[in-house]
Amino acid sequence: MTGYRRVLAIPGMAPLLGISLLARTAITAAVMALTMYVVLGLRMSYAAAGGVAAAMTLGVALGGPLLGRVMDARGPRFVLLVTVPAQMAFWLGVPMLPYGTLLGAALVSGLLMVPVQLVTRQAIAAMTAPGQRRAAFALEAVQGELSYMVGPPIVILIAARASPDVVAWGVGAAIVAGGVGIALLDPPLRAGDEVDAGPVTRPRRRQWLGRGMLAALVMAFGTTMLLAGTDLAIVATLEKAGQVSWAALVVAVYGVASIAGGLAYGALPRSPPTWVLLGLLGLATVPAALASDWPWLCVAVTGAGLLAAPTLSAVAHTVSGLAPAGARGEATGLQSSASSAGFALGAPVVGVAIDASVPGGGFTAAGLAGLAAALTGWLLAGGTSGRSTRDDPGRAGVAARDPCRTATGPDARGTDT
User: Fold this and answer.
1) How would you write the chain as a 3-class SS string?
2) pLDDT tens by residue, 144-172
3) Where is this region: Disordered (predicted)?
4) Which is more confidently placed, 73 or 279?
5) Where are the domains of the chain?
6) CA distance 54 to 352
7) What angle do CA 58, 227, 369 make, to 5 degrees?
8) Percent of the chain surpassing pLDDT 70
9) Is 396's pLDDT higher than 80?
10) What is the pLDDT of residue 68?
11) Is it the case that residue 417 has pLDDT exceeding 70?
């Protein structure tokens, strides 16, 4: 735990992670809040609610790279000055919007979502030394698991006991508070040596969006596709067993295992390449197809859960290491878009597999999707059997500064995933 204490001792890191957790929890709950409003407030179908959720998800996926590019050029405060008022206006207006208007407004809200992950991941890369980065990104991945475990259940509970209007206002208030808090902190997005080097020019996209970065983006997509598919497979398996009420417990077990795995991963001195972690996650997911009731399903998902947060952390660490300073926001935005696309497609793809076979087939489909993404990432990264340059803290930083150069020499700005 010494590594985590050192990370949290970095000036500004603990407040940043705390405010980020608040905002991410609210953002994670935003789709559920809109679902509850459409179903309970407008008295419409879950299909209609899914349309609003899809519109916001699409907006987030499209907006990530755009906001990241603006952030690279104008800084985080400028982006927050635009996105925070946009979120305030949207969530205050939700209870007054008819369905058609809400559909369009949700898309715009997604496009202008407060870029919490973009700022947090860039700040982690800027504020930490190379040896601290794995622990810092592990904390960021654990933060994501906590937000997923806490946000949606709270929304469901409050919507059942109060009203969907109150839920919408509460979620909006938390998102706005998180954006304002990050603006006040104004964390650095460039490391000290990058600041000392003078103004950063924007590199051409083809200079940094090479095979290594594409591999990382494919693995980001594959990881979240696997996770979304796993959630659906859990529900389908327990519904067939007549135990769907236990789904929340199984998902909670998965989340706790993921948090434990993420904390253990962050404490390691070295780790396997990202494609290895994702491949192991895919392999560990498949055996859950054999579980037929909730106790065995809890056991089966524990192994996969232990690898979930480490894989997410490794992807974020890899992207931050490969992105040059002048394009780090756009690269992080592309990672966010790839992850959003994986979440959006995971459930439908796995749903087709469940309909065509048995509920347990969903785990097989999700695991195979992860394996396919891992294999694709391995091939794009060069198909090497050993650790790639981005997996070595002494070499990945060179590629990050000059993506057209072969990473062969030592550099203090490297990564270790």
Assistant:
1) CHHHHHHHHCCCHHHHHHHHHHHHHHHHHHHHHHHHHHHHHCCCCHHHHHHHHHHHHHHHHHHHHHHHHHHHHHCHHHHHHHHHHHHHHHHHHHHHCCHHHHHHHHHHHHHCCCCHHHHHHHHHHHHCCHHHHHHHHHHHHHHHHHHHHHHHHHHHHHHHHCCHHHHHHHHHHHHHHHHHHHHHHCCCCCCHHHHHCCCCCCCCHHHHCCHHHHHHHHHHHHHHHHHHHHHHHHHHHHHHCCCHHHHHHHHHHHHHHHHHHHHHHHCCCCCCCHHHHHHHHHHHHHHHHHCCCHHHHHHHHHHHHHHHHHHHHHHHHHHHHHCCHHHHHHHHHHHHHHHHHHHHHHHHHHHHHHHHCCCCHHHHHHHHHHHHHHHHHHHHCCCCCCCCHHHCCCCHHHHHHCCCCCCCCCCCCCCCC
2) 888 888 888 888 778 777 788 888 999 99
3) 384-417
4) 279
5) 1-200, 204-406
6) 18
7) 90
8) 88
9) no
10) 86
11) no
> What pTM, to 2 d.p., does this model score?
0.77
Contacts 24+ apart (CB under 8 A), 156-163: 156/32, 156/36, 159/33, 159/36, 159/40, 163/40, 163/41
Q: Which residue has the higher pLDDT, 161 or 242?
A: 242
Check whether 213 has a pLDDT greater than 70.
yes
Q: How far is 110 from 11, CA to CA, in rounded Å? A: 31
Is residue 147 classed exposed, middle or buried when 0-12, 13-18 and 19+ CB atoms within 10 A define those classes?
Answer: buried
Which residues have CB under 8 Å from 101's CB, separation 6+? Answer: none
Tell me if domain 1-200 and domain 204-406 are identical in fold.
yes
Tokens linked to 256? 């706790």
CATH topology of domain 204-406: Growth Hormone; Chain: A; (1.20.1250)
**What mean pLDDT is reported for the chain?**
83
Top-level class of domain 1-200: mainly alpha
